Amino acid sequence: KAGFDNAQSRIGAIDTKVSIAVGLLGVMLPVPIAAAVWVAGLNGASATHIFAACKGHPLPCVLLAALLLTGMVFAFLAILRGVSCLSPRGPKGYCNPSPWRPNVLFALHHPDRQGDFCTHVNQLKGGIDLPFVIDEYEHQLVQLGCILHEKITDMKACFKRLKWCLLCYGLAVFVAMSLALTAILHAAKAAGP
Q: Whose CA is closest to 64, among 32, 24, 38?
């Protein structure tokens, strides 16, 4: 029972962390698009200087676009793994008819396997002995362990992609700041002494 409670609390903690990450990623994913729309909508002298800096330095502009696009791809992939982590899971083998067997914790059954489930639950009517209880707990812990393993694997993949997304966005900010500095210097040179 303690092992089951521990696994359930771990699943709750994983779901909380991944929910926060998916929410953050949902906000981060459209940021490059919003920034590009903002820059494209600039008018007047600021637009002239920014576009002059981009025209004069095409390599940083291409690098900036590649970093933003790569960051968005990593954000999207992280969201997919996060959603996979948060998705409910049935017991291991639930969709495959041969390895799955019903038990008390995972009282799920296919309509065509209802007889197996009823037979298993009917064993409880006449009373249960210690080997039955131990076997039931062992089976439940194995099922829960498989679910926990899948969640941990998805969580790690989600956070790995989140780190790559943040790295790409951080480098993109550095490149954008250098382009902005170039635009400011271009504006100062155009204004004269």
A: 32
Distance (Å) of CA 122 to CA 1, 44, 108, 135: 23, 80, 15, 16
**140/128 Cα distance (integer angstroms):** 16
In this prediction the pTM is 0.71
Q: How far apart are the first and last CA of the chain?
A: 78
Q: Which of 17, 18, 11 lies closest to 147 in space, CA to CA?
A: 11
- Which tokens in the block code for residue 141? 């812990």
Instruction: Give the distance between the most distant pair of CA atoms in the chain.
Output: 98
SS (HEC) of 5-26? HHHHHHHHHHHHHHHHHHHHHH
pLDDT tens column, 147-190: 888 889 999 999 999 999 999 999 999 998 888 888 787 777 77
By the 8 A CB rule, do 99 and 90 touch? no
Amino acid in the structure at residue 55: K
Q: Vertex 28, ends 180 and 65: CA angle to 5°?
A: 45
Distances (CA, A) of 66 to 71, 113, 135, 179: 8, 52, 55, 15
